[in-house]
Amino acid sequence: MKEKDVVPNIETCNQMLSLFLKLNRTHMAWALYAEMFRMNIRSSGYTFNIMVNVLCKEGKLKKAKEFIGHMEALGVKPNVVTYNTVIQGYCLRGKFQGARAIFQIMKDKGLEPDCYTYNSFISRLCKEGRLEEASGLLCKMLEIGLVPNAVTYNALIDGYCNKGDLDKAFAYRDEMMSKGIMPSLVTYNLFIHALFMERRMGEADNLIKEMREKGMMPDAVTHNILINGYCRCGDAKKAFSLFDEMVGKGIQPTLVTYTSLIYVLGKRNRMKEADALFSKIRQEGLLPDIIMFNALIDGHCANGNIDHAFQLLKEMDKMKVLPDEITYNTLMQGYCREGKVEEARKLLDEMKRRGIKPDHVSYNTLISGYSKRGDMKDAFRVRDEMMNIGFDPTILTYNALIQGLCKNREGEQAEELLKEMVSKGITPDDSTYLSIIGAMDKVDDLEENDDK
């Protein structure tokens, strides 16, 4: 167009800017915006809203706020969409104070918040588990005459599902339906996932049947939820049956799909099939991510193939897939299962060298490894190291130490640890008491033998 001296109109530019925003190519949006300025193409309110959105996507919230002032200086009045965009930018990053400030500016300008405004707040509050505040905002919406939509209810349903309060989630489902808002595929996916997490398979199957009756076909997300759910339950047959159904319907499996299948194959000690599937994925051009590598490494470690697990770590380095604390924790657990606690200890040092921060699982793994061998001095040394960097002992820490002490027939020290954990508000579980009872039985046996 430029070569033919045809000046693009603002609608053409806005469509291009909108596309670059959608594709997350913000640098291209700015390049085009600068070119528009050079060509004296006058920006519309829609143009400014797009560029405010670009700034929010880049995380430049202060500049987005300043950009609204720039709009006004050029005689373009910001509208509800402008303010909603900035409010959402603040909410997505959990910056509620900034979002509320924009909300107030918007109201001071005589613009009334709409459903989209409240949805930004409600969605983020639900993500942060602040469900009562989110529910309060829904009540506020209803009070001022705003009609919530599926996005509003889905956010609340998701929040209560994540909390494990399915009764409340279903109550919101009933409320949305009573207002004539039909559950979407997203709604069904949220419930199906939550029901699988609670192992309420029958109810999940009923929801899938209900979906189909309403003409909603399960999508890739639904299939991934179902496959992952059955994999977590160890039902490889059902998971692969759903995978075949998914492929048969022309739904493209994702990395999530394949990772779930690799996970269940590892749990069923079918590592040859897991390796074959991993090779197939790579042949199809899919690049394995850290989660898939971790699932495969976990499978090999759990099945005693520690050498193969380390080959996969090398493969990760070749493919520039950075390992994380889960990768190393899994390898450490593999070594500790074989009694090679010193090698596991070296891995902890390697983690630090690579800039990966060990977590409480890393330290508990070593404590458990030393305790199982009865090396209690080393176990307590790791416990002290863990506490020095700010990790408090968990029930796993105490159980491992108590088991080790009981194994060494150091019952009095084990009882002291039991008192300590209770004083810190940690409730002993079956494992704790079984260790102590087992130690007492051993002492009784020894005393009986001495009497004889």
Automatic annotation (TrEMBL):
Gene3D superfamilies referenced in this protein's UniProt entry, alphabetically: Tetratricopeptide repeat domain (1.25.40.10)
Pfam families listed in its UniProt record: PPR_1 (PF12854), PPR_2 (PF13041)
Signal peptide: none
SUPFAM superfamilies associated with the record: HCP-like (SSF81901)
Start-end of each PPR repeat: 9-43, 44-78, 79-113, 114-148, 149-183, 184-218, 219-253, 254-288, 289-323, 324-358, 359-393, 394-428
Domain of life: Eukaryota
The UniProt record lists the keyword Lipoprotein: no
Keywords assigned: Repeat
InterPro entries listed in its UniProt record: PPR_rpt, TPR-like_helical_dom_sf
Record-stated family: Belongs to the PPR family. P subfamily.
Name recorded for this polypeptide: Uncharacterized protein
Originating species: Cajanus cajan (Pigeon pea)
